[in-house]
Recover the amino acids of this structure.
């Protein structure tokens, strides 16, 4: 399975910014830390709400350290974290496999956080690492070899679950994960979203390059702000009709033909419809907060109606069927940045050349 790129192509970089996954470089280990097998390391990154000691003076290590499996590493807190006013003092965890991957200094009321299991880690490694863990809020398994989510079924307190480019095809085992805020299943074989229908607080769903077709499970997830469904079999957008908090929606290279269901989503800021079958954009004219609209490689012909969307900052019309006359008028009327290829210029040049060769009467 090809590695999924972490960032989304412009102008939709906002999606990546809303889901920072990169972690900071771990601090250096204490001078007398217990010996670890190759490939295993533990970072004691300070909790910003609970630690005042300099990074050069880590807490004393226990007298004896449990054996640690190779290939597992802890990371410092990621940008996704923020100080919590209810943070408590670090708590010890009696779990030999967990100690090698969990930053114990970050164990507060938000629960421990496994933020980095190495890319390509086997399912057996993952199962061993999670065997004695409970109360996790963040779990990043992106790029690993996990197949069956049954192995994490008990971790129903998870709020951020990252599964991009894994072998997962069934979300059934996480049906009770009603605390989910972020789910990333990009590049997986998942084809059904029904198991997450109860995650009513979810704000971010990244499901591009999956086998998803039916969106009815999302109809009641009205806190969703970011949805990425690019390169899926989605066609019917009616389940999104009531998701009035949506700010970012990516539907590139889907079978979408109509955007009528989006007409009342007045908080939309970024909408990408590249490579879809959209002919009519009039339902979008009332979206007064829309800043970026991408319609590249669509069969759109009538772009004149877009001249009323003066709030737009970026409009991508590359590869559309708009005539050179329409584009010229739009360029003159609008303050936004137009992303265009040179097809319309070639068309205008060809017409001019043809006219010059026409016999004069």
């Amino acid at each position: 399975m090809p590695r999924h790129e972490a960032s989304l192509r412009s102008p939709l970089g906002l999606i990546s910014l809303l889901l920072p996954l990169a972690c900071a470089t771990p601090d250096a280990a204490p001078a007398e830390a217990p010996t670890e097998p190759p490939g295993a390391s533990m970072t004691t990154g300070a909790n910003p709400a609970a630690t005042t000691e300099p990074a050069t003076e880590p807490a004393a290590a226990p007298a004896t350290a449990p054996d640690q499996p190779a290939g597992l590493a802890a990371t410092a807190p990621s940008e996704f974290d923020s100080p919590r006013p209810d943070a408590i003092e670090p708590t010890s965890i009696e779990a030999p496999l967990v100690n090698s991957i969990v930053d114990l200094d970050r164990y507060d009321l938000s629960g421990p956080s496994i933020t980095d299991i190495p890319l390509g880690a086997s399912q057996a490694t993952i199962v061993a690492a999670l065997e004695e863990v409970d109360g996790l809020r963040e779990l990043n398994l992106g790029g690993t070899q996990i197949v069956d989510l049954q192995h994490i079924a008990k971790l129903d307190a998870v709020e951020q679950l990252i599964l991009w480019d894994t072998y997962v095809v069934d979300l059934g085992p996480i049906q009770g994960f009603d605390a989910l805020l972020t789910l990333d299943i990009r590049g997986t074989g998942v084809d059904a979203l029904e198991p997450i229908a109860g995650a009513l607080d979810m704000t971010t769903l990244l499901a591009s390059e999956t086998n998803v077709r039916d969106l009815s499970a999302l109809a009641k997830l009205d806190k969703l702000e970011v949805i990425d469904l690019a390169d899926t079999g989605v066609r019917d957008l009616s389940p999104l009709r009531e998701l009035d908090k949506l700010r970012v929606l990516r539907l590139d290279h889907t079978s979408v033909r109509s955007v009528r269901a989006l007409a009342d989503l007045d908080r939309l800021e970024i909408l990408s419809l590249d490579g879809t079958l959209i002919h009519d954009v009039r339902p979008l004219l009332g979206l007064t907060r829309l800043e970026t609209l991408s319609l590249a490689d669509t069969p759109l012909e009538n772009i004149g109606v877009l001249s009323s969307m003066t709030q737009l900052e970026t409009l991508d019309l590359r590869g559309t069927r708009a005539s050179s006359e329409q584009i010229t008028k739009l360029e003159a009327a609008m303050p936004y940045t137009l992303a265009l290829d040179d097809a319309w210029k070639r068309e205008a040049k060809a017409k001019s050349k043809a006219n010059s060769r026409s016999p004069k009467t």
Observations:
- The chain has a mean pLDDT of 73.
- The radius of gyration is 25 Å.
